[in-house]
Specification:
2 copies of one chain form a homodimer. By secondary structure, the first copy, chain A, is mainly α. Chain A has 2 domains: 80 residues, Winged helix-like DNA-binding domain superfamily/Winged helix DNA-binding domain (Arc Repressor Mutant, subunit A); 42 residues. In chain A, 59% of the residues lie in helices and 3% in strands. Chain A is built from 5 helices and 2 strands, in the order H-H-H-E-E-H-H. Chain A has a two-stranded antiparallel ribbon. In chain A, strand 1 and strand 2 form a beta hairpin. In chain A, helix 1 packs across helix 3 and helix 1 packs across helix 4. The radius of gyration of chain A is 17 Å and the shape is elongated. At the A-B interface, helix 1, helix 4 and helix 5 of A face helix 1, helix 4 and helix 5 of B. The first copy, chain A, binds a DNA duplex through helix 3.
DNA sequence: GCAACTGTACTAATGCAATAATACAGTTAC
DNA sequence: GTAACTGTATTATTGCATTAGTACAGTTGC
């Protein structure tokens, strides 16, 4: 069962996209693997304090992308092969780093300063 | 006059927030300085292909924060002192790096891998 | 078999982002 | 002074995100 312990709700991004991203990142990291059970729509919505329909929207998009399989009455399961995982990793990292590099450059940071900051905030 | 040459519209974030962020980052970087003229609401909306009200919303928030001064009939001007610039720099960088470090960690990257990626994508 | 879960599918209502179309009063350039 | 700009304000409409409530059919554990 996939846990949402380190899920932190942010604002500025739709909740259903945050859920989507959380699962994709977990899959890219290997924390979520093929065959893993997803929490039910009702369980996760209660856990996150959001509406079941919001979770359903995220799950539906994941299913449309082929990342999860759902059957009426049964828990939804992750469907992940090596090709998919590799694609996810590539996509997510490229998006993230591109956006970050752009914003750093826009703020006038040198590469060295950016690296130093990343180092400091890593925790 | 502040130019918006390198403004790239992204989706997932409200347009008025993107405009707000663009100006704040410019101010933090020193590319935008005290007394600089802002493009008029109508000019910028035409340039970006959005509604004048969307630009107005961003400008209004900047004015509420004391970062710009507007007088009916005249162009709006940037209001930036050293204290404000220092505050902007600190706020923007902290937000950015925190979000990025979280997402990298969620994807299972080590600090060294993150630094290497940042290096690769810098340009 | 039955209760408690599961996915799925609706409808309705609310709030925010964005567009559209005006209107009015103040400033600026000629 | 006048035309062309400027900021400001208002109303209406559209679409998306989110909540709320309900319903139904399939699966699972006992």
């Amino acid at each position: 069962m996939i846990g949402f312990e380190d899920f932190i709700m942010a604002d500025g991004m739709p909740i259903y996209l945050q859920i989507l991203l959380y699962i994709k990142r977990g899959a890219a990291a290997g924390a979520i693997v093929d065959g893993d059970e997803l929490p039910s729509r009702r369980m996760l919505s209660a856990l996150l304090g959001v509406n079941p329909n919001t979770v359903q929207k995220a799950y539906k998009m994941l299913e449309d992308e082929g990342l999860i399989a759902s059957h009426a009455g049964a828990k939804s399961l992750m469907v992940l092969d090596e090709t998919t995982i590799a694609r996810l990793k590539k996509e997510l990292l490229a998006d993230e780093v591109r956006a970050m590099a752009r914003s750093f450059r826009q703020m006038g940071l040198s590469k060295e300063e950016a690296v130093a900051l990343l180092d400091a905030y890593w925790e």
